[in-house]
């Protein structure tokens, strides 16, 4: 049978090596699978299936330095996870039995107790028996922190199979961003990363496990593993199993292109994720080690883990080239004497031979990869690009404005004067970034009025002030720190902002020394003071994520590096203030919405789709401002231009198509996935009403952002030219002398920005419940408007 496409030339920067304990693992895993009931009588595999899949070979390639017993245990884990995948397919996917699949999955966490002394139920099938055995053999060697992380990734891998099943039921192909996010959970590579810690005996220190560099390494690794698998498994998944969750099919549909072109695009994204992994390793780990004061052993453990991730990439590729499970051109007759499939490529054959393929050293694979890397690193700033082209984006949601808008416009000016935002900062060159004219042109209260049309006058003032603070900060950083490449100064400034967000004792707050600190201190006191501790912690974390994302932008600017597409989307949510948005907006709904709803896959999908739509609105409107006037590299259209090596108009079409897909996803989740979630968890009528109100808030958030971009004076060519030609004016002596420590004037609740404007403020309706009275003052929220 003819393959649906030719495999592309892969970027393989690391050679594959084979663990010498391969045969030991092969023999052990076959005995173990038989003992667990996975072979004879399972109805899923027979001995030939297990032999031809050769999971021991996968593990011997991906864990090339593991000791014999560790390799055998890891191999058992992979036998288990692949058996689960095939078992779930036969039992539930083929019959589209979602209720049965959910009941099956709900039992599996019971076999992963944090303390083995708590015991487990009696297994009822080979999947449960295998998990019980593996958990008991693995966790005694690992810390409680690792157990919790590994259990979470295992549950994600299992439970998100329902997402795949739901998409099959709905005959729905996901959009690229949705697919990448969900594939990490379904595909299991984060789970594989946890086993790398075990096999390498190199556990990531708990203090840094959740930091951006470690998260990016894990996610870039995961995305590359999954995209590679999609290329090899397209024929089996799409043509045989009827799957709709495959990256080639996703891009084939989204880009409306042929299968071969889609496969090449998937391979380019795979390459980009590998290069993101390399960039993070080389530029972010050393500062991370210094920041957390890791000792030599901890640093060595992290680097051993990184090496393990690299080994997995190269070994996983080698295995895919040889396993009978996948489309690779290999034939049974090509098995070598060692029992390994020959990939059918010219050159050496046998164990580990693909590492000797000359194409991994030079030729089309390296040329294409390095050309892509060069495009990302050689962008010429301040190119003349002309006015931003803004197509008719449409808007299915109601647009309304608060009747208190005019008063809020005056009040935010007064608040900004009092905070010192409209004057130069003492001893800081280039720090006079705003004056009253620019503040009025930005018209941040317009954004607040659209996002929160039912706000009271005080609530609208607070929202506007938050937006002013966040937008000012994101304008301030690239001018004060970016132009001088003062990354150290930016880090010091960002670290000090934490001091103005006390969780416990407000008396520990230092005296503010600039407008950023003064504004944050004022807003934090008004917003977080009356909150419960958990709510304050969540709000602080959201603001920290936003301000630290400004450092990410500065680092890319210093490297003149246009971000990888996936890293851009995910970090842009932080620069856009999305976490701040969620923290404050969720508070508005009190205890009506339980934590399991907020932590669910459908809710995360809904929120991310809304945030992505809002930030891409900003990218469309701000293209000329950022590329021509500011020399920026953080714009979705530019990211697409560099990734696809295409022009502005083609990139704009792709971005608009992505916006349309994300908005469609938002509506799909609200209409179809949330009701299923409600039924699954038995959500009360009050809880359902709370979620409906939250969805309505998000709809106002989306429509309000578009209204603001259309009507403010920040992005048109005439306004850009006027701002460039008009020097920033000093405030009047009256205004400068009138600044106080906040008094009883307008405070803020909600802004976040990305290099210059709001991206949105989410409305807070009247909150109820313990600790939520602050939200009557702190009505929301966040955004970014470059």
What does this structure look like?
By secondary structure, the protein is mainly alpha-helical. It is 62% helix and 0% strand. Helix 1 packs across helix 4 (68-93) and helix 16 crosses helix 19 (457-482). The longest helix is centred in the middle third of the chain and has 34 residues, at 259-292. The two termini are 52 Å apart.
State the end-to-end CA separation.
Answer: 52 Å
User: Can you give the helix content as a percent range?
Assistant: 55-70%
Low-confidence stretches: 330-364, 733-785
Number of strands: 0
Structural class estimated from helices and strands: mainly alpha
Mean pLDDT: 86
Quaternary organisation of the protein chains: single chain
Can I get a quick summary?
With 786 residues, the protein is mainly alpha-helical. The protein is built from 31 helices and no strands.
């Amino acid at each position: 049978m003819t393959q649906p496409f030719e495999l592309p030339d892969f970027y393989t920067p690391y050679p594959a090596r084979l663990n010498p304990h391969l045969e030991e693992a092969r023999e052990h895993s076959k005995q173990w699978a038989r003992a667990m009931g996975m072979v004879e009588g399972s109805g899923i595999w027979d001995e030939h299936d297990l032999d031809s899949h050769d999971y021991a070979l996968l593990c011997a390639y991906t864990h090339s330095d593991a000791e014999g017993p560790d390799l055998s245990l890891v191999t058992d884990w992979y036998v288990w996870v692949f058996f689960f995948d095939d078992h779930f397919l036969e039992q539930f996917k083929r019959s589209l039995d979602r209720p049965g699949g959910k009941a099956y999955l709900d039992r599996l966490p019971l076999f992963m107790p944090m303390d083995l002394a708590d015991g487990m139920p009696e297994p009822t099938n080979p999947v449960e028996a295998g998990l019980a055995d593996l958990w008991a053999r693995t966790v005694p060697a690992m810390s409680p922190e690792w157990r919790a992380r590994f259990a979470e990734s295992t549950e994600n891998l299992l439970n998100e199979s329902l997402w795949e099943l739901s998409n099959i039921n709905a005959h729905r192909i996901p959009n690229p961003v949705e697919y990448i996010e969900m594939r990490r959970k379904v595909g299991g590579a984060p789970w594989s990363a946890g086993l790398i810690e075990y096999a390498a005996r190199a556990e990531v220190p708990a203090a840094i496990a959740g930091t951006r560099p470690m998260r990016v390494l894990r996610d870039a690794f995961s995305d590359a593993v999954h995209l590679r698998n999609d290329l090899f498994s397209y024929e089996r998944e799409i043509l045989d199993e009827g799957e709709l969750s495959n990256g080639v099919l996703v891009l084939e549909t989204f880009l409306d292109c042929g299968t071969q072109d889609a496969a090449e695009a998937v391979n380019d994204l795979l390459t980009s994720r590998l290069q993101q992994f390399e960039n993070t390793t080389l530029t972010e780990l050393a500062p991370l080690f210094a920041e957390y004061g890791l000792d030599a052993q901890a640093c060595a453990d992290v680097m051993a883990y990184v090496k393990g991730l690299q080994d997995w990439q190269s070994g996983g590729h080698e295995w895919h080239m040889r396993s009978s499970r996948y489309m690779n051109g290999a034939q049974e007759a090509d098995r070598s004497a060692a029992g390994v499939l020959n990939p059918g490529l010219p050159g050496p054959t046998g164990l580990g031979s693909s590492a000797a393929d000359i194409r991994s050293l030079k030729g089309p694979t390296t040329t294409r990869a390095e050309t892509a890397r060069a495009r990302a690193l050689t962008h010429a700033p301040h190119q003349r690009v002309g006015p931003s082209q803004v197509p008719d984006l449409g808007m299915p949601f109601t647009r309304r404005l608060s009747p208190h808008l005019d008063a809020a416009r005056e009040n935010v000016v007064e608040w900004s004067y009092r905070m010192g935002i409209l004057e130069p900062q003492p001893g800081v060159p280039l720090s006079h970034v705003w004056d009253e004219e620019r503040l009025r042109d930005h018209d941040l209260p317009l954004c607040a009025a659209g996002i929160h049309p039912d706000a009271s006058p005080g609530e609208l003032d607070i929202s506007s002030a938050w937006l002013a603070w966040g937008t000012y900060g994101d304008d301030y950083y690239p001018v004060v720190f970016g132009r001088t490449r003062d990354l150290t100064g930016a880090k010091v400034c960002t670290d000090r902002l934490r001091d103005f967000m006390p969780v416990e004792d407000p008396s520990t707050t230092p005296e503010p020394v600039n407008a950023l600190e003064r504004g944050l201190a004022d807003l934090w006191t008004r917003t977080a003071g009356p909150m419960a501790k958990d709510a304050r912690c969540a709000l602080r974390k959201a603001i920290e994520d936003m301000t630290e994302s400004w450092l990410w932008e500065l680092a890319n600017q210093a490297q003149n590096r246009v971000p990888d597409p996936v890293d851009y989307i995910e970090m842009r949510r932080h620069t856009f203030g999305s976490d701040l948005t969620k923290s404050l907006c969720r508070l508005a709904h009190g205890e009506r919405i339980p934590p399991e709803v907020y932590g669910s896959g459908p809710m995360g999908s809904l929120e991310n789709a809304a945030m992505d739509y809002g930030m891409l609105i900003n990218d469309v409107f701000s293209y000329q401002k950022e590329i021509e006037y500011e020399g920026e590299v953080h714009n979705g259209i530019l990211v697409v231009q560099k990734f696809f090596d295409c022009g502005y108009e083609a990139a704009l079409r792709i971005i608009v198509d992505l916006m349309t897909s994300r908005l469609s996803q938002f509506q799909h989740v609200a209409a179809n996935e949330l009701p299923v979630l409600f039924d699954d968890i038995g959500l009360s009528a009050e809880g359902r009403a709370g979620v409906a109100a939250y969805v309505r808030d998000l709809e106002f958030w989306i429509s309000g952002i578009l209204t603001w971009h259309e009507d403010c004076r920040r992005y048109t060519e005439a306004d850009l030219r006027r701002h460039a030609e008009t020097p920033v004016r000093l405030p009047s002596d009256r205004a400068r002398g009138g600044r106080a420590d906040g008094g009883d004037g307008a405070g803020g609740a909600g802004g976040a920005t990305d290099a210059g404007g709001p991206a949105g403020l989410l409305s807070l309706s009247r909150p109820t419940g313990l600790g939520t009275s602050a939200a009557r003052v702190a009505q929301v929220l966040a955004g970014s408007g470059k």
